[in-house]
Amino acid sequence: MGDPRDPPEGAPDGGSGSDDEFRSVVFDESFVRAARIQELSARERLGGTYRATRSRIGLGPFGSLPRQAVALLLVVVLAFAAAVYFGISTPHRQAAPPSGNQLTSSTVALAPSGPVAAVADPTHPFAGLPAGYAEGGAGLGFPAGSATAHFTRTEVDRALAIVRSFLVASSLAPATVAEAESGQARTLVTAGEQQQYDDSVNSPRDDQHHAATGWLVRLDPGRVALASDTVMAAGAVRVGEADGSTLEVVTDHTFVYAVRASGTGQGPVSLFSVRRELRFDLDRGDLSADRLRLVDSVLQAGPTACGAPTAGFLQPLLAGQAAPAPDRPAAVDPGDHSRPAWQLCGALGPLTGA
Question: Any stretches that span the bilayer, and where are they (predicted)?
């Protein structure tokens, strides 16, 4: 029997049948169409104006691709362009707020029981303070750093230096305290809290998160002026770890300011006391950037009338002034939910040593 691969009429004359060496070559339609050499007709050969090669589409390096590949490439390009277009034109959800702890703050007004007393000697307003207070940074009482379980002594020292700089900028600098300057302290706040800081300074409100006085000691420059640039301070600092990657520094200080009515340059001088208990968190990224996160702020200030607004500025009662009787500390009804629980007022007592 013949080879089943042979044509029905048999192998052509001169052919080698099943041994034909070109039998394995298959010229399918795509191969023929892709070939650049084409057979000219008799008319084309006589005319002499035709070339025996097909011209390629001007697609540069893609000109040698089969038409199916070019079509597939165009589909992919169009799909990508559509995805980019709809990705740009579709409204996105509002961006998430910057990462970082949000400050929680509260202020307690300390109302005097009677008129505020003036100091005996305005040139030495702090002469009557009890022992334990020192001038400016000397009264902050920062300890020497020591290693913790996960932080070296060098890292703890750096954290303490950043916190100390913040306390100086926010509580001791005359420009911050009496001139509404806020840039010095801002440079020490981590980027994740700077938007909250700016909102608190520009639009202060009593909501436990956006009081400027949660960040800074600020006196209303329209009412109050410093009688001395010296600020007396006393207090202590504790260092611990919030977790294995975060240092926690807690400061508790009382600051005493000599104040008088603004715009006079003279007149009676009285003392205004502010206690600030602050909690700071600092991770290694904060240490490398010389920044900190202020997490909690509790402030007591007096003499101040209980009803005085204190979100934007502290409002000291000056020498000779007294708190209105209805605003003095009164009994608190724990069942009264008409006032926020953090809005407290206390009675101002004699200033004691630290």
Answer: 69-88
Cβ proximity of 139 and 233 under 8 Å: yes
Average pLDDT of adjacent 10-residue blocks, the chain of 354 residues: 54 53 55 56 60 53 59 74 57 43 90 94 95 95 94 97 98 97 97 96 95 97 96 96 96 97 88 97 97 97 93 97 75 67 79 72
Domain count, the chain: 2
- Pair (108, 82) in one structural domain: no
- The answer to whether position 10 is within a domain reads no
Q: Is the pTM higher than 0.90?
A: no
The pair phi, psi for residue 151, each rounded to 5°, is: -130, 140
φ, ψ of residue 346 to 5 degrees: the values are -125, 170
Domain that holds residue 76: 26-89
For residue 230, the one-letter residue type is T
SS3 25: coil
Instruction: Let me know if residue 18 belongs to a domain.
Output: no
DSSP-based three-state secondary structure for 7: coil
Q: Are residues 49 and 108 in the same domain?
A: no
Contact 314, 268 (CB under 8 A): no
Is 175 inside any structural domain? Answer: yes
Clarify whether residues 126 and 275 are in a common domain.
Answer: yes
Domain boundary among 89, 122, 140: 89
pLDDT, residue 77, reads: 72
Burial group, residue 105, by CB count within 10 angstroms (0-12, 13-18, 19+): buried
Task: List, in sequence order, every beta strand (DSSP E) within 305-348.
Answer: 344-347
Contacts of 301 (CB under 8 A, 6+ apart): 107, 108, 109, 110, 213, 272, 273, 274, 275, 310, 314, 316
Q: Would you list the DSSP string of 205-235? A: BTTTTB-HHHH---B-TTTEEES-S--EEEE
Instruction: Report which of 122, 141, 109, 51 is spatially closest to residue 354, judged by C-alpha positions.
Output: 141
- Dist CA 239 CA 88 (whole Å): 48
